[in-house]
TrEMBL record:
GO terms for biological process: lipid storage. It holds the Pfam family LIDHydrolase. InterPro entries: AB_hydrolase_fold, LDAH. It is found in: Lipid droplet. GO terms for cellular component: lipid droplet. Coiled coil: none annotated. Belongs to the AB hydrolase superfamily. LDAH family. One of its GO terms (molecular function) is lipase activity. This is Lipid droplet-associated hydrolase. The keyword rRNA-binding does not apply.
Length: 326
């Protein structure tokens, strides 16, 4: 008897720590429901697998561009439900953005290029696991949109059929309203001060329920998000990695890769917010002008840059609908 498919048993992702090129990466997986077997004569072959790989954003400020894949559970669960479980969904946290026994060196700071190489390696691993004709979709949020473009550039022949670029920060981050206002927060001295303050806060509010309640009260997020924030994000090593990565983003993500976007225009979908201070509305109009062949949308639902906090289900319905149209 074949082993039961987790997707048919419960509506929650499978958690695992993947070792990718020597780095332990927390992952979430929503398996596709079992598909009908092909006929013996091959006249009714199985349809190709479709795999969505989620590349998170990155926490820079209180409006939270989270690099923890757990923030995306409501969003990705909605995508899976909207697609009626016909696709596999896989997501991974950024290196250094989680704490726990899987972290070999909590003091290590991971560079932007190391994050890029890690995501490419994960896609390579997925390519090995699934059949050769598998279709891959990349969904990138915030700086994850820039990462998704880098993955596509490195692996153009890996069966990547679509990129969903959600509230994308793919160029001139330092020149955005938030970039100009927050850049000093990312400097080494500021990172040390913030890290020390968090260690003190965790000591004072040492009981997990107390810290979770405090986070919920201060931020106004729901209990699930408050739990993720208090248990996983509010740790000195994690926040230092977040701020270190943000500093590198300010320096590295400047020029749009126009040649890449033009070459893969038919695969790209960009989604912008009207009040986004990390990816201003001007970016939407620029994308429309420079790349008329690219599908670019402006949010009409009032979603914010950190859509996973309060708008995960709404975005999940939207992305799930796009996938169903493929």
């Amino acid at each position: 008897m074949p082993s039961p498919n987790p997707a048919t048993l419960f509506k929650s992702p499978v958690r695992a720590i993947w070792n990718v090129q020597g780095e332990n990466v927390p992952t979430l997986w929503w398996p596709a429901k079992s598909q009908p077997s092909s006929s013996a004569d091959g006249s009714n072959p199985d349809p190709p697998h479709t795999v969505l790989f989620m590349l998170p954003g990155m926490m820079k400020t209180a409006d939270c561009n989270p690099g923890l894949i757990d923030y995306y559970i409501a969003f990705l669960q909605t995508v899976h439900d909207t697609c009626e479980g016909k696709i596999d969904i896989f997501g991974a946290s950024h290196l250094g953005h989680t704490a726990g026994s899987h972290v070999a060196d909590p003091s290590r700071l991971y560079s932007l290029e190391e994050q890029v190489e890690n995501k490419i390696a994960i896609v390579d691993r997925l390519r090995e696991i699934y059949p050769a004709d598998t279709k891959f979709i990349l969904a990138g949020h915030s700086m994850g949109a820039w990462l998704a473009l880098r993955v596509l550039k490195a692996r153009p022949n890996h069966g990547i059929v679509r990129l969903f670029e959600l509230f994308p920060t793919i160029h001139r981050i330092a020149d955005t309203p938030n970039g100009r206002n927050m850049r000093y927060l990312f400097k080494p001295v500021s990172r040390s001060i913030v890290g020390g303050a968090l260690s003190t806060l965790r000591f004072i509010l040492s009981a997990p329920p107390v810290l979770q309640s405090f986070v919920g009260l201060v931020t106004g997020v729901d209990s699930d998000m408050a739990k993720v924030t208090s248990q996983d994000l509010l740790r000195s090593s994690v926040v230092k990695n977040c701020l270190f990565l943000a500093e590198q983003e300010m320096e590295a993500i400047k020029d749009m890769d126009k040649e890449l976007i033009e070459e893969h225009a038919s695969k790209l979908v960009f989604y912008y917010g009207k009040t986004d201070e990390w990816s201003p509305i001007e970016n939407y109009y620029e994308m429309q002008e420079l790349f008329p062949k690219v599908k670019s949308y402006l949010c009409e639902q009032g979603m914010v840059h950190a859509f996973v906090i309060g708008h995960g289900e709404a975005m999940g319905l939207l992305v799930g609908g796009w996938i169903n149209e493929l």
